[in-house]
Amino acid sequence: MTSYDIAVRGAGAVGRSLALALSRQGLSVALLEAAPRQPQGPDVRTYALNAQAVGLLRGLKVWDALPADAATAVSEMLVHGDAHDSQLEFSAWSQCVDALAWIVDAQALDEALATAVRFAPHVTALPADTPVQAPLSALCEGKHSAAREALGIGFHTKPYGHTAVAARLVADRPHEGVARQWFRSPDILALLPFDRPRQGCSYGLVWSMPTERAQAMQALPDAEFEAALNEACGAAAGHLALSGPRVGWPLQLSRAERVCGPGWVLVGDAAHVVHPLSGQGLNLGLGDVEALARVIAERESWRPLSDEKLLRRYARARAVPTLAMQQLTDGLLHLFEHDTPVLRELRNRGLNLVNQLTPLKRWLAGRALGT
């Protein structure tokens, strides 16, 4: 049985990023990846990455390896409420940054990470069932982590009863780097500016709605789905047409009862899951990667990687950012899921009030940017 410094279980974006970050410290890493699934069709997923996540990927020599059309800068974000005159605006200019976020093709990022792993000098990619010896195992297998379950770590989950419907869209006018989001009862709809398949005129769609309605929407013919989508957006982004299939997945709020122990640590969705309404899922996971890599780099020379006291430093570093994002996304969802006239009026007025409070807007945007 071959020995390594660290075993990383799970080879998604988080697992590969962690393997690369640890490799740069000269640590030997076994990257244990499950057999690739049979493709079910084109990958329509997009990630919304903040400045902190992009900085990490750039440091790993992954970001600059992406194709030019695989990452699109968001220069402006418009958040719409229930009423047509209820709106919250964010801009890169007001934040004094190059972009509020970058919308990234999930498949392109996965491919760039896989290529970087192949050339990483201290990373060995192995099938998931390969027996290895390592003082520390980082579990990055996602929310259905088998290794976490085998350790008996509780994973508290609150199903939302909602499903996210994702697709790629093409508009009849340029997106100009503007992302749009509608918070309404009972759905949340996001249009993420993108450059695939058509440069400057494409979007990634994430439409969260009650599961029964989502199933009905997914079953609609393309023309009927497009009609419902365009009605929901009110022509704010021009006329939208599907450019590929629709996929859906159930939404939940989850957290592990513990994120570390002697010789093991949870990273990414294996530790926490949030609603996608803020686009912060992968940002949280890459924040975990950065924190864990920093804790390991700063450890005392005499302290073993398996030391639980060392790993608790990582747990403490990530506790507040993770809890804050879970509470924010959960609170926003519940605020907008009820359709009483009084509550609808209050939240629409609230959006307009926040829009006029520049310091508060800057603070909110800063949290999303990771600054």
Automatic annotation (TrEMBL):
<keyword id="KW-0285">Flavoprotein</keyword>
<feature type="domain" description="FAD-binding">
    <location>
        <begin position="5"/>
        <end position="89"/>
    </location>
</feature>
<dbReference type="GO" id="GO:0016705">
    <property type="term" value="F:oxidoreductase activity, acting on paired donors, with incorporation or reduction of molecular oxygen"/>
</dbReference>
<dbReference type="Pfam" id="PF01494">
    <property type="entry name" value="FAD_binding_3"/>
</dbReference>
<dbReference type="InterPro" id="IPR010971">
    <property type="entry name" value="UbiH/COQ6"/>
</dbReference>
<keyword id="KW-0560">Oxidoreductase</keyword>
<dbReference type="GO" id="GO:0071949">
    <property type="term" value="F:FAD binding"/>
</dbReference>
<dbReference type="InterPro" id="IPR051205">
    <property type="entry name" value="UbiH/COQ6_monooxygenase"/>
</dbReference>
<dbReference type="InterPro" id="IPR002938">
    <property type="entry name" value="FAD-bd"/>
</dbReference>
<comment type="pathway">
    <text>Cofactor biosynthesis; ubiquinone biosynthesis.</text>
</comment>
<comment type="similarity">
    <text>Belongs to the UbiH/COQ6 family.</text>
</comment>
<protein>
    <submittedName>
        <fullName>2-octaprenyl-3-methyl-6-methoxy-1,4-benzoquinol hydroxylase</fullName>
    </submittedName>
</protein>
<dbReference type="GO" id="GO:0004497">
    <property type="term" value="F:monooxygenase activity"/>
</dbReference>
<dbReference type="GO" id="GO:0006744">
    <property type="term" value="P:ubiquinone biosynthetic process"/>
</dbReference>
<feature type="domain" description="FAD-binding">
    <location>
        <begin position="132"/>
        <end position="319"/>
    </location>
</feature>
<keyword id="KW-0274">FAD</keyword>
<keyword id="KW-0503">Monooxygenase</keyword>
<dbReference type="InterPro" id="IPR036188">
    <property type="entry name" value="FAD/NAD-bd_sf"/>
</dbReference>
